[in-house]
Amino acid sequence: MTGGYLKGRIRREDILAAAVTVYGEVGYHGSSLREIAKRAGITHAGLLYHFPNKESLLAAVLERRDALDAAREQLQARPGLEVLRRYLALAEHNVGNPGIVDLYSRLAAEAVAEDHPAHEYFVRHYRMARAGVLESFRAMADSGELREGVDPEVAALTFIALMDGLQVQWLTTPDEVDLVGSLEFYLRSLLTVGL
Amino acid sequence: MTGGYLKGRIRREDILAAAVTVYGEVGYHGSSLREIAKRAGITHAGLLYHFPNKESLLAAVLERRDALDAAREQLQARPGLEVLRRYLALAEHNVGNPGIVDLYSRLAAEAVAEDHPAHEYFVRHYRMARAGVLESFRAMADSGELREGVDPEVAALTFIALMDGLQVQWLTTPDEVDLVGSLEFYLRSLLTVGL
User: Which SUPFAM superfamilies does the protein's record reference (chains A, B) (predicted)?
Assistant: First the structure.
């Protein structure tokens, strides 16, 4: 790793941290690249060197969040029930962090178009999220812990989709949606063993 | 119904139809109230009289779509398995109409804040959607068609959330998501009878 490369990484990290702060304070439409640059102690042009637009910066914020989530919840554990439990812990963590859930939901809905700067991030994110639980559903199918007839691929796809769909409904009417309980219910309907 | 009231209703209907057309042609960010007014054959000020901003117009577009969906798929049938089958038919219809699904997903993610002009629409929409399937899950619980231990309320909430979450993933990677098949899979996991 060269000194210049390392410096660039640190700078990038400062910008992402500043983006999270500004977004948390003023929300999606209020956050400007100018304000984020100011907080990161960098010029507007300097920020544009790292991120050409707001969408690519926000996609990088979400990519960093994925890495932090995976490390904190240890999502890379040995495939099986324990991994699914850790996804429930991630949902529990999300309940305490509505700001980043809001950013994720908005950017996901905006980025469905192929030419959106965050599109590639979401294609990758969905594939990785599905693959992350797929291995566990497969392991559980092999050990008889998955109900007969449950296809691990469809179980993985629907589990991730359900998390996403519940989040928007929960952000809209927090008192009417039990985010973690609903996911637990869903997992129970697929498994032959308790959580 | 007075003549003036009727004329206002027709005008409103023209505007909503024009909004659907313009949105279909140029997408979310491209659609302007000015262009929609032009297509509806009304002045910009005339349009603002009916809808003070773009978000309230788009919420009205979605409200109209809910009514059209309910009529076309006959979602108000006698509670039970048949109603759930009609929701699958609605998902099938959505597969052929990605534009309105895109509008729905974006506005839903934007409107989580209480002060958003479309917030009240989504609070109402989610409640109605959940209530619409809840009665059917309850009827099926009574007749033993719901698996033991499945709470109809949670089944209703998760069914609607899964539809929403699948739609965004499907719009992002259409080749990787079977919208209707995934919902069928989910229903099968809750029921003791076939679809």
Answer: Homeodomain-like (SSF46689), Tetracyclin repressor-like, C-terminal domain (SSF48498)
